[in-house]
Amino acid sequence: MTQPFSSTNMAKYFAFRILLSQPAQLNAFEQQRTKRQLLELAVQVIERNYPFRFQAKGNLYLAYYHLKINDGTHAIQIAREDIVLEPKVGEHGVTNQPDTVYPYSYFILDISRQIILVQEKPSAFRDIDSIVSRIEDIIRKALIRQRVTVAIEAISNSEDIWSEIEEAQEIYSLVVDIDPPNFFGSRFRSNIDIREAYEETNFTKFKLVILNKLGALRIPREQFENLFQTISSGAGDFIIKLRDRTGHLLKIGSSTRPKSLEMPEEPSKINPTLLEDEIIRIDNLNNTDTLNNNSPTAS
User: Fold this and answer.
1) Mind listing the pLDDT tens digit for each residue in 95-150?
2) Is 70 exceeded by the pLDDT of residue 289?
């Protein structure tokens, strides 16, 4: 029987789904690839170009292929080049002199399920969103020849959200943003047939807005559960404005309740079996469908 993660140095990792899309029309020199093949190619490019360098927001960033944890599960280090002033002893006393430092963090990429676990490290990056933005840059630049569109969406715990909905004193609004079905492949499931609407209209964004200024909005679980599960797995975003059971006004949604777990800060100390179990648990968290990884539309 495996034991829970334990280490002297633990870190919090947040779960995200990575979404990839190639252009609908490819030229004669381009190859249609599955999402899995694209991510495998991105890892190969990062590993081959050691370190993988890129510019973003006026800074130099570096990505180092760190290690393979499981078959198809890789740890990658991401660092930013910073110029800081350090007090150093000189001929005439202590003076501030420029020095180069490289604050870093890690992320773990599971290719088969297209899940990313991002390590929170406030000493290196301001917040998780800033790290996620740079991971998007890494994958986009690694796949630049494939002209791939990249988006990374938080995987939220839908049960936490439903608890707040069902215990709310008042609910004022629900705003849902859904990306086109071809952006997340076969994972889309909902009582609302968005895929059919997309095929009829070729929309680039679907927005559903439901309002009740008196706070009397009802969001029945049996009508919205599938929709929320799909979005929470990384197929868009939704925000609910409500007054919680304590009377506070809140905005909750798929990006405000990300799934997280504690694991060793150093990826080499992560138990591969436990990691596999956690990734499977995260993948099943919102009842997402099993991928058909041989299909070009697999997400």
Assistant:
1) 898 999 999 999 999 999 999 999 999 888 988 989 999 999 999 999 998 889 99
2) no
Residue 288 pLDDT grade (very low, low, confident, very high; cuts 50, 70, 90): very low
The model carries a pTM of 0.71
Strand partners, 260: 14
Nearest by Cα to 119 from 194, 16, 224: 16
What is the spatial distance between Cα 277 and Cα 287, in angstroms, rounded to a whole number?
A: 16
Burial class (CB in 10 A: 0-12, 13-18, 19+), 47: middle
> What are the strands, taking DSSP E only, across the chain?
10-21, 52-56, 59-70, 73-80, 82-90, 93-101, 104-110, 115-119, 149-154, 170-178, 206-211, 236-243, 249-253, 260-264
Between the alpha carbon of residue 101 and those of residues 59, 77, 83, 86, 104, the distances in Å are 12, 15, 6, 10, 10
Strand order in the sheet with 236-243: 206-211, 170-178, 236-243, 249-253
Among 247, 225, 229, 253, CA closest to 168: 247
pLDDT at 258 over 70: yes
pLDDT digits (tens, 9 = 90+) for 74-100: 999 999 999 999 898 988 899 898 999
Cβ count within 10 A of residue 218: 10
**What Å distances lie between residue 11 and 50, 236, 250, 259, 270, CA to CA?**
25, 27, 28, 14, 11
**Beta carbons within 8 Å of 103's beta carbon, 6+ residues apart:** 79, 80, 82, 121, 123, 124, 125
Q: Dihedrals φ, ψ of 133, to 5°? A: -60, -40
Identity at 168, one-letter amino acid code = A
Residue with tokens 């060793």: 264
